[in-house]
Amino acid sequence: xxxxxxxxxxxxxxxxxxxxxxxxxxxxxxxxxxxxxxxxxxxxxxxxxxxxxxxxxxxxxxxxxxxxxxxxxxxxxxxxxxxxxxxxxxxxxxxxxxxxxxxxxxxxxxxxxxxxxxxxxxxxxxxxxxxxxxxxxxxxxxxxxxxxxxxxxxxxxxxxxxxxxxxxxxxxxxxxxxxxxxxxxxxxxxxxxxxxxxxxxxxxxxxxxxxxxxxxxxxxxxxxxxxxxxxxxxxxxxxxxxxxxxxxxxxxxxxxxxxxxxxxxxxxxxxxxxxxxxxxxxxxxxxxxxxxxxxxxxxxxxxxxxxxxxxxxxxxxxxxxxxxxxxxxxxxxxxxxxxxxxxxxxxxxxxxxxxxxxxxxxxxxxxxxxxxxxxxxxxxxxxxxxxxxxxxxxxxxxxxxxxxxxxxxxxxxxxxxxxxxxxxxxxxxxxxxxxxxxxxxxxxxxxxxxxxxxxxxxxxxxxxxxxxxxxxxxxxxxxxxxxxxxxxxxxxxxxxxxxxxxxxxxxxxxxxxxxxxxxxxxxxxxxxxxxxxxxxxxxxxxxxxxxxxxxxxxxxxxxxxxxxxxxxxxxxxxxxxxxxxxxxxxxxxxxxxxxxxxxxxxxxxxxxxxxxxxxxxxxxxxxxxxxxxxxxxxxxxxxxxxxxxxxxxxxxxxxxxxxxxxxxxxxxxxxxxxxxxxxxxxxxxxxxxxxxxxxxxxxxxxxxxxxxxxxxxxxxxxxxxxxxxxxxxxxxxxxxxxxxxxxxxxxxxxxxxxxxxxxxxxxxxxxxxxxxxxxxxxxxxxxxxxxxxxxxxxxxxxxxxxxxxxxxxxxxxxxxxxxxxxxxxxxxxxxxxxxxxxxxxxxxxxxxxxxxxxxxxxxxxxx
Length: 863
Description:
By secondary structure, the chain is of the alpha/beta class. Helix content is 34%, strand content 24%.
């Protein structure tokens, strides 16, 4: 088997509204063979992954997949279930899977993931594991399972960050992992970021101050808070002076340390001090030498000024049995499933290092000592979970005075999220002293204590960082075959009339308000994420194209409104799309993610959209737009039509005429039908989004053709009517050319080209469409040939025109777009019309706007 493609989708996609991995797998010599053909295969698989016995598969009940295995199922289907079960064993709640044959031995396997990197690793190891079992190599199959387990621990979010991620997701807050432990929550002006448990609500000064233990204590002293007496030491000599001033025993630790590294104590002698200083100095100077105080160590989590949870931290320890050595007891403890390397499990491994040896020495023990039955052996002087410590939840029993002390300590440093460590005789004691504060507190001791009740502190942090809100801004998504960009630009302009800062991602670039911040074709999920991540954006309009949906899914999990301009003939034959219904299947994802009581805005005369509407009406409100004065189907919640040359709005049983079409600068004196529909769609969407009618109409009257660059944009150039448009399919050309045919022009010159990834017959049809309307054709090609050879697309366009009876003498082929346009401009005459369907806009605008003289272009001879 060979993996041809492996891609993780972070958001809703055409297969599932939850994140999935899509894997294209070639079965090669295993094609056509079923699981039942391999003796003992299903038993070996279940022995290795017993959880597969609970998979339902299509049977709908536990054990359904086992039945399929025994009866015989294709091996791609087996890989799907293995990829899911590997993730389930790693602690992820994933269930959705689907396997479909593409062509020949190629299969597309879709399975849900809980983390992008983990999901991709599951796909790779599932293939390797199944291959190993098929070949009879159970050892290699077990190694694949173990390799995935290790990869999952390395790639997955740690317990603290994962708790924050899940808390946000369960609260309905948009959340995504940016890398490592960095999370982004919310959209636009509500966007917040968490790096572990440090939020962008935290003061950078406070975070730095908390990292310096001495200066933290100085602040607490200034506030009159109780602290352990100690001194800062920058040299071994200063450490010795501090030791004498304080008197034995003392504790030695790095002033800038973390996670309990480099801490030694109690230190009773100069010799022990020298050793402790050496250990601490490995983490860096200066050091803190503090009076050693007996008592229990507590961590209190303070969020937003309030103590939310408390845990007693216990140093790592083992209990003797009179038979085994300390080393053997520690090795057994480290073998517990709850313990693991780093922070991936509830407890960390107990280090068997110099500090552990020091702790043993202080108790008169070595690694080879055999403790008596019941003897407790401490492996550390500190109680950090990072160095093997354990925790007991004491939230319900800790004295309120200690909670208030922790709250004051966090306030004095300036932290809104803080793990405050203090020392007290017991949880019930009203007296305690502060030890230190952590600006990025680990949550494991609260989420999954070794003893006591778990506390959902991730919820507290997320609620605090997000201010109790959902983190959502209103999103309007625009899709369809033609008219998306103009409609999106119009809607963004109308929405701005309310005073909101509206972000727009469309073909042409990303805009924040009136400023273009990123140029290009920005209709996919990456540009949408860029826009939604911008803290200036209060509302977003996202043009959402088919290609982006198929390749990357959606950048958002829900939207306030989705607008469909219509489903037309384009992209057929690409990426598995053979029919208009296939195309609708892709684009209808945007209907599925409209929030409950949100809006679907649909072209009224599109029969495919009418079918889609029937399945959506129960949960969404419906708006339609059309060229008639009443809808073709029963009245929706909102309808925008045309009556007596005016825009007509019908809503909630009331209807009214509004602006005459001729008052709208975008439409001009003789508006084309497709442009009227663009205006209607944008107006219907704006009204559905709550834009007052008066504001929306003001926006329509102020939206000029110059604000819709490159979309049916007209120029007068040396007596010629020149039109630039981005249309690249026969339906778009039909609408543009048929409109121009009714104008008093001389000859119509069509400068045409289409993307090379369309089918041959489709390209020929485009050539025939242009031939029906143009007196002269100048055929060019895009720079991006999309898999075609140079001249191939032009040849097919010529074939289409000739088959339609077009004279070859009226066809000129110039493959370079700029040269083809210049040729048409100079060969045409005043009074003629020149239409360019461009790939790149700016060079042609430069000619028409006079910044580049057209005569300066070197013209090649036509082919």
